[in-house]
Amino acid sequence: MKKNVFLFFLALFAVLVTGCQNNETGYPSSDDPTAVVTTKEIYGAPNRKFEIKAVLNDDLGLKSVRIQIPELSLDKMITFASDPLLESYDLSYFFEVPSDRGTSESFKIKLTITDVSGNAIDEDINLRLDGEFAAPAITMVTPKEGAVILLSTSNEMPVNFVVNDDSGIDYVQVKCEALGIDETIQLAGSPQSYTFNKTYTLPVTAANYVLTITAKDKFAIPNTGSLNINIVATNEYPALYLCDQPKGTNLTTDAVGVPMYFHEKNGQDFEFKYYADKDNKEVYFLGQEADFAPHCFGLNAAGGLVDDLTATPIILPTKGYYNIKVNPNTLAYTVTKYTPSSKVWADVANGLWSDDEALRRPFVSVCGGGIQGADWDTWTAWTQTGLHLANNPNNAYQLVGEYTLTGQLEATFTGQWWNPSWRLIKNGIATMSPGENGNAKYPAAPGVYKVVLDTELERVFITKK
């Protein structure tokens, strides 16, 4: 009898010990966790971040997920709270590939998912460093942004652009809803370059159109690029621009004022004021702001004004200010030199801030955004002396300086408490306050720019140095 009792307690002890061992986590047994990864193959590149995405689930509760790439020294443990238990987790983890790795290398990403019951599973993801992430590059030949199509001359719209992509081009789409254009060109053989050239016919009524060009590449994870081109179809020119740059110059590199917007318009009679900074200055008139094509006005062999890309420039014989009138319809123009009579803002580089107006001397600096060192406080404009403009020794009506632009530009050129001040509005126009309100925003690539405020022309020119 004693032997039987001993065996009973021995068996009970074994059961208890076994039970404690099976439940050492303190949680009852449960099914294995699950992991559903977004993709089994991730593309990365040296010095670039990639994302690991997965949905983790467990019927009782998740404990942790471990992310490992031993060759890249990645060993990340993410531990989950246990009160309350977490049954589902959307994993999104970013990791930057070291810059010294090669584009031909590949690795295994190991995910280890453990639940609170001690169950663990592994999930492997392939990582390749030969990823291609750039969208197809679309280069417009014609029309350029803001192009003017003069319907009285022709209602045809040539569309010509080039698409390039390292991994090959899948398709190109040309679309303009207002014109009923929706063409998709599916390309065979994954070409790395494709040229589109087709002419569309426009209605004879004036209107504005948006042409959308889209291209998708054939990379494993496709990249798509898109470009919108605004087009003005009109029976007369809404604007003319004076350009003093050689033909072929990229007119979108500078931030403000190149080419220069007209001053007055009466019907199709356009009037400009312009300063020639040297003898024999060469100028053209353009029907659009961003390019010499399609409308470039210059001189023919007989000295008459023509709208022709082969035209030669108009020559302003001597340095100084000019009044120029031009009609793009009648092709008549006049050039008259004049002497300005507006106020000269002299000695601004030696300005003085003073609450006593009698002691104050004017300075001209800048307030605005997208300019290194500037904000909208005129005290900052005073204290940041690198923002101060100086008199141009060669032209009493120009204030000059250099600014470092950091992005989208918005500016008012100002003295103490906005006196004097010139607000930079659209088209490079700088009206002296009080004047037209509404500072314009100008896209600008970061970099150092030369700044010219011409107080006679009421124009600002901000050009890439």
Short description:
The chain has 465 residues and is mostly beta strands. The chain has helices at residues 2-22, 378-383, and strands spanning 34-37, 41-43, 49-69, 74-79, 86-96, 106-115, 120-128, 137-142, 147-150, 156-164, 169-176, 181-186, 193-201, 207-217, 224-234, 241-243, 260-261, 264-266, 269-276, 281-286, 296-299, 305-307, 314-316, 320-327, 332-338, 365-371, 390-392, 395-414, 421-424, 430-432, 447-454, 459-464.
Descriptive overview:
The protein has 465 residues and is mainly beta. It folds into four domains: 34-128, Sandwich (Immunoglobulin-like), CATH 2.60.40; 137-234, Immunoglobulin-like (Sandwich), CATH 2.60.40.10; 246-338, no CATH class; 348-464, Immunoglobulin-like, CATH 2.60.40. 6% of the residues lie in helices and 49% in strands. The chain contains two helices and 32 strands. It is extended. Keywords: Signal. Residues 1-22 form the signal peptide.
Relevant terms:
Immunoglobulin-like; 7-stranded antiparallel β-sheet; 49% strand; 32 strands; signal; extended; mainly beta; disordered N terminus; 465 residues; 4 domains
